[in-house]
Structure formats: structure tokens, C-alpha cells
Records
---
Amino acid sequence: MKISSVRSFLLSYPFPEPLKLPFWGGERTIVKRDAMFVRVETSNGLVGYAPAAASESAQQTIQSTVAPFLEGRTLRV
């Protein structure tokens, strides 16, 4: 079984209204929630998902370095 593809999906959800939360004696305002997940598919159709750091630089690293390194490699169990 080989890894056939590695894809990352960067997601962002803006809140309808800013969320104010207490933070270290002050207040933090959150206006959106960001997330990223990585989808790994194998040659026999098995698919797995994993969370990752939600940033454009992390997504670029996955696309330019991690995916090319993993795609085509054989999984061993």
C-alpha cells in the first residue's frame, strides 16, 4: 500500500459578532476561528485525516515539502 496523495485544507470561519473572553487579567477579542486538516490517501483507497497548525506557511510547507516527500512511499505495518 502506497501513499497516493497528501492534501491540506486551510479553513477560516468569521464569527457573526466578535467574541470577548477574559485573558490574563485583561480581555481577548476573537473575530474568527482558523483550522487546517490534512488528508492522506493510499493506493487502495484508504483515507485518513489529521489536524495541523492553521497557518498559510504551514499549508505551504505541507504542499511543497511534506506531500512530495510522502507521496509514492510504501506504508509498512
---
Amino acid sequence: MADFAGRTVLVAGAGLAGASAVRALLARDARVLLADRAQSPAVDELVAAGAEFVAAPDVLPDGVDLVVTSPGWRPDHPLLRDALARGREVLGEVEFAWRLRGTDAAPWLAVTGTNGKTTTVRMLESILRAAGLDALAVGNVGVSVIDAVAGAHAYDVLAVELSSFQLHWSSTVAPAAAAVLNLAPDHLDWHGSMASYAAAKATIWRGPVAVGNADDQTVRELLADSSAATKVSFTLGEPRPGQLGVRAGQLVDHAFTDAPLELVPVSDVRPPGAHNVANALAAAALARAHGVDAQAVADGLRAFVPDPHRNQFVLERAGVRWVDDSKATNPHAARASLTTYPDVVWIAGGQLKGAPVEELVAEIAPRLRGAVLLGVDRRHIADALRRHAPEIPVIDVASGDDGAMIEAVRAAAELARPGDTVLLAPAAASYDMFSGYAARGDAFAAAARALPEDVR
């Protein structure tokens, strides 16, 4: 366990991760400087606890020994660049949490990837609990990893969701077993390139067991280059030795047994969709790596309750299903849900963050019965639809106010026919119009439920 007593540590960011870091450092007798863009009530609370507010300087204040940064601060921020230039170590929240661990700390089973992280760690948590373990899903899923490590409760094992932002600043984190679910262009504005993004993800495999998606070429290549002692992959096809996969409608383990071992029927995996079967295989692989038996894997997956806004059924009305996948905040995630349904009226748009949509639209065009577009980058999706699905009716919702989702839902209802699915799978982030993907999904569900009876 690292000793922070008497050291001066600057914490960049007063959000959830930053606040957890400040509290943990103060409890360990460190002098804490807090940098943030505004002196909010959250900042005032931390100052009252003993932190010193320094606003958001571009250069490192004198006397700082170490920086702990939050995911919202990009690597090219002048303050972080100045710290590195002065030879000061910059830790992310996850690296900081790792160094807080004691010698008898709970092992980490970690998950990263472009999409599916939260669903997978929740599945893993459910499996571990079915095995009788005191387990908790942490990271970006409610409880910060710092709080889980620094708190008084001693868990048996932690299921840890790790983002590329967190992994970028992690230099010694080595989970007992770790999985990379998939990789597609995302957060390139933060990382600078796809290569840097992928490299950050691959650092999750510093530990003894590396798990990767054999159906994803980039992940497969990264796994081959990993130095992990044990490499396990998962596939939606028939598993070879060293893999988990699908055979005759069953999830099968052929990695941790000499002969293929059936785990659970595909039909028991929720939410539906091939991508969630892949998530379940990844969760099962991590649990099996930790010694969990097959029955607990089956029991845990059957008991799993999906989080909201992830391919979530809202209602069926006049033969039309309404589904909320607002968590599909990039094209790769949107593809997963769009390919689940044969006939779709697609509600999409928001902040693409530079992610390309051409390939997605070309692939899912045959499934589309119509599209309703909203948000700041909707024209990029509209242009792709004109090129790849010119016959599909497209409705543009130009409004950026609170009524935009109501207008979008009503337009989608006019396009839909019995047997269709109206799917909110935006392929883009939500902050141009909403406080987050959850608010966007809630607005969609509320508007769908409130449709007047005279709308088809």
C-alpha cells in the first residue's frame, strides 16, 4: 500500500472520481490541492473537509509531489502536460485505487471494451454472488473503485469496469483476470488516434489471465501480442480448446475444462441479442478463471437484471414494439441493437465525436423502414442514409429543445407499421441535448407512452 502521508497531491477534477480521491487522501494525512473549472458546491464541500481549491491552473503549483486526475481531463491539458514535464507522476483514479490496496486486498476481475462493459460487469457480479462470494461491481457502475478499495468493507472479489480514460493513466494495475470485449472507433478526440485508444485498452492485460473476443479482429490481434501467462478467448461460434463459445444453442466452456462443458442456454441470456451473448461469455470466462463452477455461472446469468436503457423494452402498441437503447452512444453499440431486430424505425443522432457512421448505415440499411434524426450531428447520418438507403423515409427534427424527443417519437409512430420496432439507438452521445443517455432514454420512453390514440 502506498504511503501518502505528508505528501502534497493535486487532484484534477471534483466529480465523483475526484471527490473520492480527495477524501481518501485526506484520510491518509496528505495535503490536497483541488483543481476544477468552477468553485461548485461539490468543491466547497471538499474544501470544508480540508482540501485547498486552486481553480484550474495551466501550470503545476509549487510543491506538488503527485497528480491524481479524473477521466474528464484530457492528456493534453496544459496542467497535466506541465506536471509530466516536471517529472511528476500523474495517476488516474484506477491507478490511485490500485495503490491504495493492502496485501490482502480483494482480487480484481476487470472488463473493458468500446461497448458492453457495464452489462458484462453486472453479469459477472451476479455470477460471483451466485457462487456465494461477497462481490461488488465497481468503476463506472455506481460505486467508485476508490471507495470500494478504501472503505472498511472487505469484499471477496471486485468486478471492475475500466474505461480507456482510466487505463491511459494506469501504469501498474494488474487484475487477476481481465477481458477486452470489443474495439471500435470511440473517444478519438480524447486519445488522438485509434492506435492510442487500442493501446490504452490493452494495458488491462498486465495480470496473469487475459480474455479477449476472438470475433473482433483488433482484439484478437492485441490478445496474440499480450504477455499474459494464460490467454482465453470467446466466440459466438463453436469453441475450440482455450475458448468459450456457442454450440447447439448453449453457452459452452472449452477453456477451463478438458472437454466442452455446457453452461446455460442462449435463450436465458438477457437482454437479447448476439452482443449480449458475447458479454455473457466474457463474464463467464472471468468467473471461471476465478474458479467459479458451471452451475453458479448458469444461476448468475439467469438471475441477472439488465440496467435500464440497454436494449430495454418499453411497450408494444398497435403491433409496434418500442425499445430504448439510449446507451448506444457510438456506432458500434448502435449496430449491436439494430441487428437484433428485422424491421426498424430508427431514432438516431447526437454527438458523434468524430466516429464514422458510413459502415454502420450501409450494413443496417436493409432493416430500416424509416429513420428519425435529431441532435447536433444528425446531418452526417442523413448523408449516409442518402447514399446507402435513398428509398428510406428520413425525418429531420431540427429542434434542440425539450420537445425534440416528443416530436421524434411522434414522427417515428407515423412511420411504423405492425411488426416494426421503433428503436432509439442514437449511435452518438447525448450531451448536446440531454444531461446524459439516461435522460435521453427516459424522454423517449415517456414520449412513447404518452402518444395520442389517434397516432398510428
---
Amino acid sequence: MFRPVLTFTIAAVAFGAITGSTAQALSLTTIATKVTSPTALTFRPDNQWPVVTQRNGLVVAIAKGKVNVLANLTDRVGQQGGERGLLGIAYSPLYKDNGFVFVNYTDAAGDTQIVRFRKGKYGHFLKGSATTLLSIRQPYANHNGGQLAFGPDGFLYVGIGDGGSGGDPGNRAQNPNTLLGKILRIDVNAGTPYAIPSTNPFADGTLGQAPVWAMGVRNPGFSFDTRTGSMWIIDPSQGSDEEVDWIPNPAPPLPNLGWRAFDGTKPYTPQPLAGTVIKPVTSYGTAYGCNPVGGVVYRGKTIRKLRSNYVFGDSCSGRIWSILRKDAKLVDTGLHVPNLAAIGQDPAGELWLISQQGQLSTITP
């Protein structure tokens, strides 16, 4: 039986306040407008043009304003309800050699599927190459997660929501014996169809599910700082305390983001917490938005004022913020993207944003 480990190390700084706008004026340059219901934005290694997933099951590449279909997964994807569909994508860092690309979607039954495809001609998904890595039952239609990203260790990280409804009624996020409400970590370059990294908290599977790397999340989005390897996380609130979190590299054993003992910084359902408790870097209320959209740490060269800042936004308010972990203060960039869907970073470190209406833009000084 699993016994909670009551370790309360704070791996992030205390939460801060909303401040003024950036001193350097920024603008958006529109690249394309014909993407339908986008959910994720990424780039193939060493390719300057973005790849976008559409909720309906299409994977498209956008080059010089033109939208080209790389894969049609509509026969696999179920999108009943507002949060289901094709939700995430990640290209292997070894893509040029192994041709692996991974997607995260809900199927016709509403369950999460993590599937690997191989590269075909011109970057299209090779027909018949699908291999299912994980299949996770979803008890409700919301909080499916969807995030996929490769970490600095070369492992694939998978964001899985708490399974939905409201308030995590099954306390799934704090139950190590379910994959719901977790960030998973698997080695997709070993095993059949994958291997478990030996340093996963429950690697032997005796006290919890072996793929679990972090727990206590509601519906997470995350990315890795390409320079430091640290992880930035957004987690939407049950009430009005949208949170931004940070996990250092190397990470502590079993990071626990606190849901549902806490909702952001506020107590929700107090209970003992296993692992290393991670408190939010910052949080914000309904005056500033109601649904955070995960971003990236800016490592480009063209926008001096954003260097080393984590840049993210909110789909309700459309506001785009930057934050430095050391002072934990949100800075309004002055940019506004109504119904923001996703933020991505190209191989040069520059920022791209896409709205739910399909407008793809870059940030320029």
C-alpha cells in the first residue's frame, strides 16, 4: 500500500504580482489565417515552418502562408465535447534518424491514446506505421491533458489531466495508482513499445504506476527551457487561482504540484501530500483571465527584453505575459491574441502564437 512521504521542499519562489508592460514595444505579424480549431503548435527539428494539430484530427504544416496536410487522423480521433480531439504532438529529437513523431488524442470512446508514427515522404505520416504506446481511460469528457514534450534527458513527457468533472471527485491527481492527474515520463527509444526510466519515482511499479514522474495536476500544459532544462507548467484553476509552476533540472524526486489539496495557492481539499511539494511561482485571478495557455522560455535573439523570460498567455482575456522566476512578477507584454490556443518556439528560439480562430502570428519587436 502506498504511504505518503511528507516532504515539503519548495522548489519554486513565492508568487508575485501583476506589473506594468514591457519597455520594448512588441507587435504581431500574421503568417496564416486558415487553420481550423488548432490545439498545439510545434516545429520539426531543423525546420523553420510550424506544425499545428487541429482538434478534428488533421496535422498540418504551414509554409509561406500555405496550409499543407501532413496526416489525416480523423478516423481515429473523437472530439465529442469541447475538450476532446487531437490535442498534442511532439517530434523526436532524433527525428532525422528515426523519423518518430508522437501524437496525443482522444478516441471515439473519449479515452486518451498516445501513438507513435514514422516519417514518410515530405514529412507526411507513414500510413500503417501507427504504434500505440499508452491507452488511458477517461471517466469524463473534460481535463484530458494533451501535452507532449521531450525533456533534456531525451525521454518523452506526457501531460494527463485529472479525468474531469469538477473538483477531481475521485482524488485521482493524488492517487499514484492511476495515470490521471499526472505528468508521465517514458523512454521511447527503448523497450516495446517503450521503457520506464530507472529514476521514475515508481519505476518498479510496486507503490504506484511506473510511468508517473510528477503528480497533483489538474489539466497541465508544460514546456522545457531549452537552455537550463527546467520545466515550466501552467495548470488551470478549479476556481479563480490560475497557476504557473516551475520544476528545476535536475528535478526533485516525485514533484507534487498540489492539486487537489490546493487550487493554485489556496487550500481546496487538505490532505497529506507525497513527494516534493512544488508551490506556484505565481497565480492570477479572473481580473486577468480564466484559462492559462502554456508558453516557452524565450531564447531567441530579436527581442532583447524577453530574453530568459517565460512567455505565456490566457485564452479568456487574450493577454500575453512574461515572467522571470527570480522575481515572480507577471509583466504584460502589451500583446493581445483573442482566444489564444497555443504558443510555440521555432529552432531559432523565436515565438509563434495561434488563436482558436486559426490566426498564426509571430512576435516581432
---
Amino acid sequence: MNRHLLPVVTLFVTLLLARQLYPYVSGAEPTVVDGYHVERVAGGLGGPTCLVWANTSHLLICDRDNGQILSLNVFTDERRTLLDGLDRPHGLAFDGESAYVSEAGRLSVFTVDTSGVFVNGTLLVEGIPTGNHQTNAVDLLPNGTLLWHSGSTCNICDEEDERNAALLWVNATTGEHGVLASGVRNSFDGVWVGGHGYFFTDNGRDWEGDHPDEELNFLIDGAAYGWPDDDPEHPVPEGTEPPIGRWTPHTSMNGLDVRPPHSPLPGLEPSEGFTLYATVYGSWNTLLPQGHEILRIDVRPSADLNTYTTDITRFAWDAGTPLPLTFHPDGTLYYATFGNGGSLFTITAV
């Protein structure tokens, strides 16, 4: 290499490394809009990928890095391991009696014993390929069916297994399953909103400049959502469903929950629609840091409830690497950052 170019290349590589590490090691305090306060309430949680309430004091946490499901008393910081030996757990559905656990390529159900520990595991689904992405959140729908998010194995490709890049339905008893929605490249999370249906995040392909935006989608049974046929000239291919909300490309919009009407956090009145909150993890696929945010998403339905419009704004920023989030029954928002030991934060009114 030309000795005159070496310092330039070295500086460029150093800047790229600094850009990658910044969200994990910057030490920046999260910032939130006026009238609200962010507080760190727990650390040392490994690699948190899900947050699910067992009751009003105990939060169940998927720890991907250590292959565990943890129980954390958010008021006393008492911790307990409910299940370990897992392969990259990313999702948990919990009804008090049964726990449905999403790992890399497999979904299992466990009985919850009288002490709260998960026992007597039964495999429901296995063998879903993993690659660039894996199987993520699992939710229990009002009709008792499980909805499972399954990521793509690649950035852009034709999947060999139709269960990749899809939302899957799963019979919670037998494990029978199939594709509910296709063309969903990497959907991390979703939430059921009563009176409306299921809303989910999806993250698009990399390496194509400002294409595509990260998405918020409304689930339509049997619909396709565009990937891998979307491109800059055809962001919504013919015959596919467009997103109802868009955010900065390559920033990774992930965790999602619906704001309870009694929450002290800002949102729409029920007569106007409803408000979702989402995490934006941030991306390595940008030159300068982007993302690392908590979003407020105001959703307004049409009169016939067939279409939705959204207004998306930043609610908190400089938030490190936020991934899962959930509202406490009292309306307080909890979110966890992935990496740097794993921390849990709350956002409350001042």
C-alpha cells in the first residue's frame, strides 16, 4: 500500500470502529421529551431480547447471550433463573400456566410449576433455518393461536423454506403451523390491539442507500409484504401490502407495544385512535450513528377500520441499543438495552 494512503485508511477504519462501538460504550444519558424522565433500574441482564410481565412486580426477560429466561422483581432487583440451556431465546408468550419460548429455529411450550419455574418442555416446531436472522417474538392471539415471527436467512434471496421471512401461525397444543403472512424480511416484534388487529415491525434489506424504510405493518391474513421483490424502483411490488408507517432506513425498528389509555406517557385518546411505542436499535449500515431511539407512533384508523395512518415522532434518543419494550400495567414504559451487560430502564412522567 502507498505509504501516503496508509494514514488515511487507518483513520477511516478507526472511525468505522468508533462508529460501531459508540452506542455500547458512549456512556451518554438517554434524553427524553420535556415532562418525562428516564431512569436505569437494573443492569447485568445479559442480552435482553424480550420483556413479559408475570405479574405487577415480576418481569420475565429473555437473555439471548446466556440462553436463559430470567425473572426480575423490578422493585427489589431480586432475580431468578426460570429456564436455561436455550439456544438464543428471542421471544416468550406467557399466560400464567404455560410459557411458549422462541429459540433459534424452534418453538417449545413449558408448564409453569407452583414456584414459577418452567418445566416439562414440549417441542412444538423445529427445523426452521437460521442465517442472517432467526425466529423472534411469539405472541398468543385472543383466539388461542400463537403468532411467531420468523426472519430471513439472508439479506436478499429466494428462501428455500417458505417459513422464513414470514409470520407463522402455530397451534399452541399440537404444533401444527403454517404461513400467515409472507415477504416479511425481519420482523422482530408485534402487538395485538383490541378492536383493530395485529401490528408488527419489519426491517428491510441493507446495502441499497436510502432504500428501504423500516416499516410498521398491519397484518392481513394471507398477504405478502414485498420482500425480496421490493427495490428502489418498486418499493411496494404489485400485489403486496404497503406499510402503514415508515422510519429511517437501516436503523432497525424492533420492540413494539401499545400504550394503555391510562398511561402517563403521551398518546391519542381512544376516540382518535391509539398510540404504539417502538424501539429503534440503530444500525451498522450507516456511516454516522442513527437510531438508538424510542418512538411514539400515533395510529388513526379509517371509519371502516380497513386502513390506518400514522404520525411517528422521536420520544427518547441517545438510548444506546434499545431492543425489547413493554408497558407495565400501571402505564409506565420499560425498555431494555442489548449489549454492554444489558440494562433495564423506565420512562415516567416528571
